[in-house]
């Protein structure tokens, strides 16, 4: 096994300890079926997202149609005030 594979596997295991699986309802994602959704760090529900602190939202999905022009994107959210 290559060193990069070992490092990536370790990072994924560490992230999984910080995440809590979130129950969700897919409201009709066109072209994809969402399978998991999680927020890091979140140890229990409800997850408390505090203004000024960083958090990561992860989801996995299966494409249900051909992706002709796939692209990478990052979406940043501004929390207006307080906890969410």
UniProtKB/TrEMBL annotation:
This is MD-2-related lipid-recognition domain-containing protein. Residues 1-21 form the signal peptide. Gene3D superfamilies: 2.60.40.770. Keywords: Signal. It comes from the Eukaryota.
């Amino acid at each position: 096994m290559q060193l990069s594979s070992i490092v990536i596997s370790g990072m994924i295991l560490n992230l999984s300890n910080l995440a809590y699986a979130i129950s969700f309802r897919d409201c009709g994602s066109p072209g994809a079926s969402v399978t998991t959704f999680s927020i890091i760090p979140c140890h229990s529900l409800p997850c408390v997202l505090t203004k000024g602190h960083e958090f990561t939202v992860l989801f996995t999905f299966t494409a249900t149609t051909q992706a002709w022009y796939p692209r990478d994107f990052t979406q940043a959210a501004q929390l207006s005030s307080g906890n969410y």
